[in-house]
Write a structure and sequence with these properties.
The protein has about 130 residues and is of the alpha+beta class. The protein has three helices and seven strands, in the order E-E-E-E-H-E-H-H-E-E.
Length: about 130
Amino acid sequence: MAAGTKDDPWQLSTPPGTASYTMWADETADPPTLFCQVGSTQLRYQLRCIEDLHSWLTEQGDWVDLGAADEQKPANEGTVEAWGRSEDNPVGGWYGLRKGYRGRFGMYLPPLLEALGKAELTHEPRNNKVRAIA
């Protein structure tokens, strides 16, 4: 498995398997950052989102809809996407760090959790779900 660094990023695919992207962590960034490179677009999330999302999924105790949506679109309640921007999450709002590119949390984070052995994910053409592995 990749080291998850810029020089050796995680190679991932969206849940339906229709697009590939890379992610890597930079603990020296302020705040520590998880980078997500999708083609020429780069999204950035607070690095703590990995552990925070796993904890939240563990609390849910069952499958949770991903609900991926762009920042400008509303997220369906109870989804990973809604939690990733909720005032009730541990950071009190968006995990995304780059204005205009803070969404898609529900699309890009769950495959990383799956690759890290922290979650299992469905891989259907639409309406995918995730649940924590304890």
